[in-house]
Design brief:
alpha/beta; 16% strand; Rossmann fold; 294 residues; six-stranded parallel β-sheet; binds guanine
């Protein structure tokens, strides 16, 4: 069997184009453009690339991008002070603090300081609680992207066995909540899970979000399953530049799965597209505007 490749880049392009239409509508009909504030602390090279892409893509679709870069030795109090100013700024609709933060800053305290109505990452405990209880909320971007990618293959997920590998607050836990809300039977697997390959072989839907290069082998995958690879890992390559691979051994997965997302070009592009959509959602919700759905 050769699996279908789910094109995350094409889907992200479509989603961004739709968000751009929403922004043009908000400008024309309501006289404002949503503003997204992105805060980077320190010099982490991967984070700098992500933040640059977020700023560029938000500007490309007509959103206002507000960028704050703080030095690596910034104290938590200074970062929280900036967040409070962004919370109070009526021109800021979404606030994203890029993770990871330097070791002297507790990320939980920082996330807690963000106004839940501007929490476009959906990481605040209020938004996590709303997601867990089925209330409308800002949904974390990568999990939301995973669900939209699944939508490319499945018109309904009810009754399917979904296995999520990884239990992070950013991906594993929220994507499990979304799969449960879609009536999947959900198993959360993690580093202490016994006989992980056998657990994975029971999955109709397999979400890999562990950050371990090519950990999921072809013989872990149920024939015909849909595999969403959230991992982005840089490994050594012959030319010395390194190469990106996911958490799934892609070539092996192609022989067994029904559909699989590539790395790069799968879940990654969807994360930013969903962030931009969340910024529009937050901008509308704060002003009581109903978002056009088409
Ligand atoms: N670092 C890696 N992924 C993310 C994300 O989705 N949001 C933020 N804020 N930081 C991240």
């Amino acid at each position: 069997m050769t699996a279908a490749i789910i094109d995350g880049k094409a889907l992200a392009d479509k989603l961004r184009a739709r968000t751009a239409i929403h922004i043009r509508h908000l400008k024309a009909a309501h006289g404002f453009v949503p503003g997204l504030a992105v805060v980077l602390v320190g010099e982490d090279p991967a984070s700098r690339v992500y933040v640059r892409n977020k700023a560029r893509q938000s500007e490309e679709i007509g959103m206002r991008s507000i960028h704050h870069a703080l030095p690596a030795d910034t104290e938590a109090a200074a970062l929280v002070g900036l967040i409070k100013r962004l919370n109070a700024d009526p021109g800021v609709d979404g606030i994203l603090v890029q993770l990871p933060l330097p070791p002297q800053i507790d990320p939980a305290g920082v996330i807690d300081a963000i106004d839940p109505a501007k929490d476009v990452d959906g990481f605040h405990v209020i938004n996590a609680g709303r997601l867990a209880t089925g209330a409308p909320t800002l949904i974390p971007c990568t999990p939301l992207g995973c669900m939209l990618l699944l939508g490319e293959r499945h018109s309904a997920l009810a009754g399917l066995n979904a296995v999520v590998i990884g239990r992070s607050n950013i991906v594993g836990k929220p994507v499990a909540q979304l799969l449960l809300a879609a009536d999947c039977t959900v198993t959360m697997a993690h580093s202490k899970t016994r006989n992980l390959p056998a657990v994975c072989r029971g999955a109709d839907i397999l979400i890999a979000a562990v950050g371990r290069p090519e950990m999921v082998r072809g013989d872990w995958i149920k024939p015909g399953a849909t595999v969403i690879d959230v991992g982005i890992n840089r490994i050594a390559s012959a030319d010395g530049k390194g190469r990106l691979v996911g958490d799934v051994a892609f070539a092996e997965a192609l022989d067994v799965a029904g559909a699989v997302t590539p790395v790069p070009g799968g879940a990654g592009p969807m994360t930013i597209a969903c962030l931009l959509q969340n910024a529009v959602t937050a901008a509308c919700a704060r002003r009581g505007i109903v978002i056009p759905t088409a």
